[in-house]
Amino acid sequence: MTAAQGFCVFDTAIGPCGLAWGERGIVGVQLPEGEREGTRARMRKRFPGAPETQPPELLQSVAMRVAALLSGHPDPLLDVALDMTQVSAFHQRVYGITRAIPPGRTLTYGEVAEQLGEPGAARAVGQALGHNPFAPIVPCHRVLAARTGGGGFSAEGGVATKLRMLQIEKAQLGPEPGLFD
User: pTM for this structure?
Assistant: First the structure.
């Protein structure tokens, strides 16, 4: 695991989220774990030894942008630096495709697998997204099992949280026309 220099907990429309950073960028984001203490405890478990502290100015801006996204203000967050040194190459590829899904749009696990050039890898895509350490900057909530079903979601509240995040984004099912052509 990449060492975190620090972490913070910040308020969003769906509850308190966490953000951890290191020398190369963000090393983890945490969706709400119930109350603030739950998120704080999860961050301490994920990043032992990292102090809870005020983030650098650039990361304060990222926290504000994540909070705005979770309030319904579309921001793809593509310019946010993520430290993926501890992320497998396959997961990095899945996260890259997932990050390209614009706010308010969705793909299925199968469609992400097709974009990878591995049409039989839908289950592996789901597993990669289930281990996503950067949600919602890597917006795994925008990947569904099928056009009519949410699939799994590892955040507190499970699929209900995923569907709430999509509702906040006023999500339309499917990619933007021409987006992945």
Answer: 0.86
**All structural domains of the chain:** 6-69 (3.30.160.70), 89-168 (1.10.10.10)
Span between the terminal Cα atoms of the chain, in Å: 36
Single out the residue of 101, 95, 127, 122 nearest to residue 110, CA to CA.
122
Task: Quick: pLDDT tens for 78-111.
Answer: 999 999 999 999 999 999 999 999 998 989 999 9
Kindly give, in sequence order, each residue whose CB lies less than 8 Å from that of residue 152, ignoring residues fewer than 6 positions away.
Answer: 126, 130, 145, 158, 159
Query: 143-144 and 107-108: which strand pairing?
Result: parallel
Contact indicator for 132, 14 with CB cutoff of 8 Å: no
| pLDDT value, residue 179 | 43
Q: Are strands 17-22 and 25-30 parallel, antiparallel or unpaired?
A: antiparallel
Beta pairing partners, 133: none
Catalytic residue among 50, 140, 155, 171: 140
Alpha-carbon distances of 32 from 19, 41, 49, rounded to whole Å: 11, 11, 21
The predicted pLDDT at position 125 comes to: 95
Any catalytic annotation for residue 140? yes
